[in-house]
Write a structure and sequence with these properties.
ten-stranded mixed β-sheet, about 550 residues, globular
Length: about 550
């Protein structure tokens, strides 16, 4: 058994004199060893850090492991400002880690979500010792899954994340005043516990009242609107050409940042970089094999990976080749490992999306039909009423909200029974139909107000009639002409699923998914001061001139 030496709270001084602290795990011996670095705001000794990278297991494989609290968090000095310092602190930390005793001078980074993005920011800063990154479950464009999606606020992550991160903020603020600390934390916990019971409904959503009550740095939506240039502090989109490193990216079909993972991979391949992509059926916090209501089989579990071994072992193998003594990677190569739901199998590809996929229209039709055939001239529009005070409740999906709202594929019976949800369904399929790639819904629709939202959801209906969600998307229409039909394209992101013979493909159309996304109050007022709702009367058209449809990338054969 390899002995491991652990040093806690090792100081690293940043360029402005702020000291950040890290725990360092070394195999006992003289080395030198390649360095694996994670920079996270969640506590370097918390379970989350260990779950993503077991430092003991990595040290036994011959790596020096460095887990660092980011600026303003836990043992590190400075003020907590999400994203602001990650590029410069990432650069300084990589250089510091590469010079630690026992280091071989080569650094790789690994981590998920926020500390997936800290890798991209460090890579954009170009420290010469950084040789490879392995971001998991992280975004590319913060306005496509982190702060907003389709123009709607990602309230479901923004509210609980900001409040949970506020605990350490209050402990620092009131550390010398026990009474103020107890009161502050008590109020914070009350707001956090009360979100599902009505707290999400506080208005205005764009200046969420709970954040002001506790004077907390929020996830970034508000600041990014005030200071658009600041938004670059966590944006990767449009900057991939600046990253000349191999990447190993991991995502999940039901992860809130699923499309960001895919977009990062495709951008790196376009830039000619060596890139590896693994997409499981997973959520943001669950990489096992039971996701939502579905058991995808033990092969889907990240501990097994269809007999390939544990995911973390695959990552360490890759790091041996990029920063260790293993055989170097081939330049300009793409490797893709997809879990195809429905078939419940892993499949290796060399590209994403698969170029053999054929975009295929399925048209919304009268009487709730969904057909490859286009609509006829006699088909009349569908109508429903959207009341922002009675929104469609979030039921499954690519979520990161909390235990009150389960992510993944869930039974849609309650959603589909509502009067404000339109449902369109195919006949039972006569053969297996694989859909792998990016999905879009084209809606010809009208509202009677100056603004509204359109939500589209793809579902798989089994032979017993049980409908479960596959993927969905939202589009906020900020300037609508009341009563006038217009074409709207809703991005449902991507998936890989086989709709089995005997199953049916279903599409839901509605105007809300709350509290995942904030409600459009249908008034056209900006989200930062909108507090008065109005009910909207919605129309969805499907005729030869206005063929509303969903476009599915179907794999032939």
């Amino acid at each position: 058994m390899t002995e491991i030496q652990i040093e806690c709270d090792v100081p690293a001084e940043m360029r402005d004199g702020t000291v950040l602290r890290a725990d360092v795990y070394r195999p006992v011996g003289t080395g030198p060893w390649p360095v694996l670095l994670s920079r996270l705001p969640y506590g370097k000794q918390m379970a989350l850090a260990i779950a993503v990278l077991d430092p003991l297991a990595a040290a036994r494989r011959g790596f020096m492991v460095v887990l660092q609290d980011t600026r303003g968090r836990f043992a590190s000095e400075g003020a907590w400002e999400p994203w602001t310092y990650e590029e410069s602190d990432g650069y300084d930390t990589v250089r510091w880690a590469a010079a630690l005793p026992g280091s071989n001078g080569s650094v790789g980074m690994i981590g998920a979500s926020y500390f997936g993005n800290t890798q991209w920011m460090a890579a954009l800063a170009k420290p010469p010792e950084l040789k490879a990154i392995a971001p998991m479950l992280t975004w590319s464009d913060p306005d496509d899954g982190l702060w907003t999606r389709g123009g709607a606020i990602e309230l479901g992550i923004t509210a609980p994340w900001t409040l949970m991160m506020g605990a350490d903020v209050l402990m620092r603020r009131h550390g010398s005043d026990p009474a103020a600390l107890v009161g502050g934390l008590g109020g914070l916990v009350k707001d956090l516990d009360g979100l599902a019971g009505g707290g999400y409904g506080e208005l205005p959503a764009g200046r969420f009242p709970a954040f002001a009550r506790h004077d907390l740095p929020e996830l970034g939506y508000e600041r990014s609107r005030r200071e658009p240039e600041w938004a670059q502090s966590c944006t990767v989109t449009g900057r991939h050409d600046e990253v000349d490193l191999p990447t190993f990216q991991v995502g999940g079909w039901y992860d809130i940042f699923a499309q960001g993972t895919l977009d990062n991979f495709t951008a790196m391949r376009r830039a000619g970089r060596s890139a590896t992509l693994v997409m499981g059926p997973w959520t943001h916090t669950n990489q096992q094999h039971v996701i939502g209501d579905i058991n995808f089989g033990f092969a889907a579990n990240s501990a097994f990976m269809g007999m390939r071994g544990p995911l973390n072992g695959l990552q360490l193998d890759w790091f041996q080749r990029t920063i260790g003594a293993g055989e170097p990677l081939e330049p300009d190569t793409g490797k893709v490992l997809l879990f195809v739901m429905g078939a419940n199998q892993w499949r290796e590809e060399t590209e994403w999306p698969p170029s053999r996929a054929v975009d295929t229209d399925f048209h919304l039709r009268t009487n709730g039909r969904l057909t490859p055939e286009p609509p006829t001239a006699d088909e009349q529009p569908e109508h429903f009423t959207y009341d922002p005070m009675k929104p469609v409740p979030t039921t499954g999906g690519a979520l990161l909200i909390g235990d009150d709202f389960r992510p993944g594929p869930l039974d849609q019976v309650a959603v589909e029974a509502r009067d404000d949800v339109l449902v369109f369904t195919t006949q039972p399929l006569t053969e297996d139909t694989e859909v792998t790639g990016r999905i879009k819904a084209v809606l010809h629709a009208a509202t009677d107000g100056p603004s509204t939202d359109w939500v589209a959801r793809l579902c798989d209906v089994d032979e017993h009639g049980l409908s479960r969600n596959v993927t969905d998307g939202i589009l906020r229409v900020r300037e609508a002409t009341p009563g006038e039909p217009a074409e709207h394209v809703v991005d449902l992101w991507s998936t890989s699923i086989v709709f089995r013979a005997g199953h049916r493909i279903r599409v839901q159309i509605t105007s809300s998914n709350f509290p995942r996304w904030d409600r459009n109050l249908n008034t056209g007022e900006p989200e930062d001061n909108a507090t008065t709702p109005r009910t909207a009367r919605q129309q969805v058209f499907h005729d030869p001139d206005r063929p509303s449809r969903i476009i599915l990338p179907v794999i032939p054969g």
